Amino acid sequence: MPRGKATTAQQQWNRGLVGQAPPPRLVERPGSCTAPACGTAADGRPPAGTVRVEVAGSREPARWYCPGFCAAYGQALAELRPVEDGPASP
Asked: Is the pTM of this model over 0.90?
């Protein structure tokens, strides 16, 4: 199918939304963490000393966090932000 016009099924799935998704919101670093890369979007190479946190089915994008408490914070944050369910199957 050529790009440009979405099918009726695609429009129903997206609930009529079109265009690019908005950029992910900025996330505060947990607690007193002072690492500049903590909580940043996980695109490209990982900053030194960080772990990638990504939860399938979350609207929260993958992010880099410091290991330990910061990573647990990111994991919980992603688990609390599930992607909204799509339309029900017939």
From this structure: no
